[in-house]
# Entry
Amino acid sequence: MPQRNRDSIGNILIVAISVCLVASILVSVAAVALKPAQEANRLLNQRQNILVAAGLLAPGQSTSAEGLGINELFDLFDVRVVDLRTGEYAEDIDPAEFDQLRSARDASRSRRLSGDEDIATLRRLENYGIVYLMRDDAGNVEKTVLPVRGMGLWGTLFGYLAIEGDLVTAEGIAFYRHQETPGLGGEVENPRWRAQWEGLKLFDDEGRPAVELVKTRAPEGSDARRHQVDMLAGATLTSRGVENLVNFWLSDLGYGAYLEKLRQGEA
Ligand SMILES: Cc1cc2nc3c(=O)[nH]c(=O)nc-3n(C[C@H](O)[C@H](O)[C@H](O)COP(=O)(O)O)c2cc1C
# Structure
């Protein structure tokens, strides 16, 4: 009987194709099987960032001083979708299904911003935005957390801004995704810099967004200082980006109309 040549081109191809096939099946099965776990982790991470901004968790922690976990703490929030154009709740949109960033990319659910409007360099603005509200036992809003985003130097910064019950004073800010340089623009994550946001007055007396990132803050006790945060050293462009994005989302183009309704007790 003639010996089959095991090193023939045909044999090599069959082995190579079989290995590729088995490997691709394994990768596909793993990708499908791991998807729910990845999604659960993404959600947990998002919730953790909201809680950090609201001062309910320290960065990197997954339990509060009282021993409450991320999901337990997050359950204290009422999650709503708001029509940014009117400031009214969009009762027909399920917050659990709503993807704000995806709607910003969808021409039918967003609009192009003009150059003058687009201080945060978003290009498009979604019609609806999500809000996270914590109320006290009497139903008064204690904390409001808003998603914020805007251009830094190297890319878009994504974060959450938490506001106290007066809807004027910041509770904190947390950026969870950005492309700024570690040690320069990346210092947006620095807890010492972030601490300056607690107690910051976000609006001036006329109700206009008034956050400023400055090289030298005005003297202690002055009116101007209430709105000021130190610029990040060596990162003028990131600092300008943070100032612009916060003021954008607090303006009437962002959550301004909604915050005004909340202040008036209409939301
Ligand atoms: C490698 C490298 C990384 C940089 N990263 C940042 C950054 O993340 N954010 C920023 O605002 N500037 C960054 N800069 C500096 C800017 O290019 C620019 O010089 C600076 O923002 C100018 O203002 P300043 O030096 O007064 O802060 C970087 C520069 C270099 C060379």
Notes: DSSP finds six helices and ten strands in the chain.
